[in-house]
Amino acid sequence: MSPRKRPLVPVSSRRKTADDYFPFNLLPVECQLHVFSFLNEVDKCSCALVCLSWSCIIRSWKLWRVGDYSRRGVFHLGQEGLLVSNREFERWKSWVHHYTHHLISRRASLLTLKASFDLGDRCNKWGELLSHLLDNVHCRDLSHLDLNWSFTLLEPLDLRIHSSSSSHRDSITKMDQLNSFQELLTKLTHRCPRIAKMRLHFDWSDVSVSLLTQFQHLRVLELKYFWVFKGVTPSTLQTLTKSLPNLKSLTLHILVPMRNLGISYTLESQSLEYLDVSPSRGLVFSRLKLPALRELQAKKIVRSITLDRRTRLRIQSRWPCLYHVLREGTPKLQALNNERLLPTWREESYGELTAILEQSCYCVQHLDSWLW
After folding, report:
1. How does pLDDT run across 145-154, given as a tens digit for each residue?
2. Among 23, 94, 125, 178, which one has the highest count of C-beta atoms within 10 angstroms of its own C-beta?
3. Is the domain of 39 the same as that of 94?
4. 40 and 95: one domain?
5. Taking every annotated instance into account, which residue ranges of this chain make up the domain F-box (predicted)?
6. Which DSSP helix (H) or strand (E) runs through 133?
7. β partners of residue 237
């Protein structure tokens, strides 16, 4: 049986007329740029291959506003900190360098920069790569920085095989990371003074605090811990918050060492509206002066440290109740630990706050366990 033949259709009817196409190239250049701005990097590169006019538009610096090293492009190799084969690592490393060259060749005008590199890595020299990027793109208007400088996204499995006389991993020390971070932070103060949102690990040294306070446009700040056994002095924390006049949101990851138990902190800011200290451990406030604060996140984290009764009471006696600290220093507070507060919460009887305070306050009245 012979197959059925499709009826012939005139060529003129199969071809679309010029009226069937939207005249995209006739739009103003700004409109074309606005349309292309919704595409990701891969799609933009694909569009650049369509025609010469599109290629010229795609090369505009206005379309390259995000530098995101935290994504892995087409590799999708799993979770952060994944150990991979040396071949996969070299592929990813090659992508990182090509991506950097791509941003520089496009004369990118960055608004956002996201990266996760071990700046103490003497072999791959990630710190030099980021410094080279900042020197060769327009980053004066950079407003969002998300930087993890303590580890690299991917690490090769045979990291120790291709090493010199000393182990490569042993050569990556905390001080190497810290020195490279401070050099990069110094460059950022000069090249990117308008950063408004920042998320990074922080060492709380006097040098780093002094550099961080130069970002006077900061509105959102999240600081993660770098040192595990090194505490933060109360004066350092107070200096930081008082020196950032436009700060609206602050998230702190602070681990108070055992030797510093009993120390309490004072926090002052005229602009701060949101404060999250729930990731911190052992962080206790003796005084808050936050007239604009509207929401607070605080959590008491058990540290599995057994103390005898005398030691526990001696430490706890130094700490005021969080309720009294909030009542005196946060006149506009509206939410505590995602719970909406009633307008009458400042009354002496705070029955509705009892459950919240038991989860947040370290004072004698609300700490019924000897395990911290």
Report:
1. 999 998 888 7
2. 178
3. no
4. no
5. 25-65
6. helix 126-136
7. none
Burial 313-323 (b: 16+ CB within 10 A, else e): eebbeebbbbb
Choosing from 63, 91, 121, the residue where a domain stops is: 63
- Are 32 and 129 found together in one domain? no
Q: How many domains does the chain contain in total?
A: 2
Map tokens 């090769």 to a residue.
Answer: 156
**Could you write out the three-class secondary structure of 17-35?**
CHHHCCCHHHCCHHHHHHH
Boundaries of domain holding 274: 64-71+82-160+173-359
- For residue 104, give Cα distances in angstroms to 61, 64, 93, 181, 298: 10, 10, 17, 22, 43
Residues 156-199 have pLDDT tens digits of 766 544 444 444 454 457 888 999 999 999 999 999 999 999 99
Long-range CB contacts (within 8 A, 24+) of 278-284 = 278/337, 279/224, 279/251, 279/252, 279/253, 280/252, 280/253, 280/254, 280/255, 280/256, 281/254, 281/255, 281/256, 282/254, 282/255, 282/256, 282/372, 283/252, 283/254, 283/256, 284/319, 284/362
Looking at the domain assignment, is residue 129 inside a domain? yes
CATH number of the domain within which 33 lies: 1.20.1280
- Whether 254 is covered by a domain: the verdict is yes
> Letter for the amino acid at 251?
T
Calculate mean pLDDT across residues 29-43. Answer: 82
Q: How many CB atoms lie within 10 A of CB 122?
A: 14
DSSP code per residue over 84-128: E-HHHHHHHHHHHHHHHHHHHHTT-B-SEEEEE--TT-TTT-HHH
Same domain, residue pair 198 and 342: yes
Return the CATH number at 112. Answer: 3.80.10
Q: Based on the fold, state whether residues 297 and 192 are members of the same structural domain.
A: yes
Asked if the structure places residue 98 within a domain, the reply is: yes
d(CA 107, CA 133): 10
Interatomic CA distance for residues 308 and 177, integer angstroms: 39
Question: Do residue 50 and residue 128 come from a single domain?
Answer: no
Domain match, 50 and 188 both:
no
- DSSP symbols for 254-312: -B--GGGTT--EEEE-SS--EEE-TT-BS--EEEEE-TT--EEE--------B--HHHH
One-letter amino acid at 269 equals S
